[in-house]
Amino acid sequence: MVRQFFAYYKPYKWLFIADFSCAIIAALLELAFPLALNRVIDDLLPTGNWRAILLACIGLFAIYVLSGIFHFVVTYHGHKLGINIESDMRKESFDHVQKLSFRFFDNNKTGHLVSRMTNDLMDIGEIAHHGPEDLFIAVMTLVGAFGLMLSINWQLAILTFIVIPFLICLSIYFSQKMSVAFTQMFKDIADFNARVENNVSGIRVVQAFANEDHEINRYAENNERFRQTKLKTYRVMAWNASISHILMKGVSIFVLACGTWFVINQSMTFGEFMAFVLLSNIFLSPIRQINSVIETYPKGVAGFKRYQELLNTPPDVEDRDNAQAIDSVEGTICYNDVHFAYEGNEALLTDINFSVAQGETIALVGPSGGGKTTICNLLPRFYDVTAGSITIDGMDIRDMTLQSLRQHIGIVQQDVFLFDGTIRENIAYGKLDATEEEIWHAARQAQMENFILEMPDGLDTFIGERGVKLSGGQKQRLSIARMFLKNPPILILDEATSALDMETEAAIQQALTELSVGRTTLVIAHRLATIRNADRILVISKEGVEEQGTHEQLLGSGGTYSRLHQAQYV
Ligand code: ADP
Ligand code: MG
């Protein structure tokens, strides 16, 4: 995992090296100060040469100024490095999520994902901000200060050192406890986000059922659990901080007492004593720093693990190695012995065989839950067939790139998803570089021109999140306009008008009929009246395509279709 983490430093190798070098210089300057002070006190003070002493003091100050400058550079560039790495990771995770398949989103909560891509990344960023170079400097000053302390008075240095193993054991102990706490905390935050996301997007249902109290209670549970976890984490952090504080202060007092004794016995000069006290402070401060790294580290590591997990989730559906980008298709479709199961081996579709000629409109009919939508979802490869194959113009769709395949297929569904934004943006989603002219043309074809003209801001009217400010019919028209712009040779209409009232349905049906002219079209509609004009009707059952023919043929044969038809019209 360490290697994977450091891979993110690669593009910033030089920044890292420069930062690192400055950090080393800053650390060396810090170590130089006590030594210089030692010389000033022992060599210069007894001479009483005030000019020289003044100059030396200026020199000492200069050391600090210089070290301050280097510290600035290190802090700034360290953070710059952190920000860059964080933003690379953010981009990488977003890019990856765009490619994940329907199956992934079927099985993962939106809130969890959002949490991973925001909170977790920030905590990983913390490591990158205060990461390896800080740790390195801390260790380096620790070792350097100890070496200098040894050279001044080895007995006292060793006595001071005795406390270190305790501090290290303490740190390891607490870091493990904290790692567990942070992993739990991440999980809680993710659950939390999922709950909020779900609640807010379903708030209209919540209020319609007057279930606010129920939601409030469920939220309170999450909230309390999160509070407890956080409390536990902070308790561990507080223990860690206070115990190491007491130990370190103990060391300082110990050094003070022993040092004084050595000075009185004249085995140490006063200058050496001063230098030793300063060095022992420098020696202990990295421990504080290492401690704070130990506090941020488990958090970042927990986040990084989850981040890696997300990145290592492969898309179920991806381009094959030799996939070709197909510029244009005629639109002949063929399903050959298609089998499909969502989870495990429970087959939903078996032996689906049918073909659709270019420009032909076929309708899929069957019981609700019978797999009509699923059949359509296999065509743009939202899911891949378990066995068999689907071809367009005789070419297996798995031999085309996903991008080019999906460019040739348009889907109009019952529940239209619109993006938060303007009417213009939503229509233009069908063709991102559409001109004003093209957008109006599409709007006219979808019969929504008048409606747009009546809106206060015309095309620039905001439609609210998921288009809440539009009626069902308006939303559907918008999605049809989007499809006119996309202009795909193959069209799927999945219960496109089922959610609408009769009158609106009739109007939209007209737009849909116009849309399907010249395109190979698969229609699913549960109101049979809307599909009676289809070139061919297929009745889908568990065993495959049970019967097919025109409306009249199927009625005449007296099979499933005629029974369904009777049920609706008697
Ligand atoms: P239809 O469109 O004919 O009403 P669907 O194709 O939507 O039927 O669904 C067929 C069956 O597959 C249903 O039993 C449904 O529960 C199941 N199903 C649909 N979508 C999924 C999914 N994403 N994951 C698992 N099962 C699903
Ligand atoms: Mg369906």
Automatic annotation (TrEMBL):
The chain crosses the membrane at residues 12-33, 53-74, 158-175, 237-264. This is ABC transporter ATP-binding protein. The keyword Membrane applies. Residues 17-299 form the ABC transmembrane type-1 domain. PROSITE patterns: ABC_TM1F, ABC_TRANSPORTER_1, ABC_TRANSPORTER_2. Keywords: ATP-binding, Membrane, Nucleotide-binding, Transmembrane, Transmembrane helix. Residues 333-567 form the ABC transporter domain. It comes from Sporosarcina soli. InterPro entries: AAA+_ATPase, ABC1_TM_dom, ABC1_TM_sf, ABC_transporter-like_ATP-bd, ABC_transporter-like_CS, P-loop_NTPase, Type_1_exporter. The keyword Transmembrane helix applies. It is found in: Cell membrane. Pfam families: ABC_membrane, ABC_tran. One of its GO terms (molecular function) is ATP binding. It is a multi-pass membrane protein. Gene3D superfamilies: ABC transporter type 1, transmembrane domain, P-loop containing nucleotide triphosphate hydrolases. It comes from the Bacteria. Its main location: membrane.
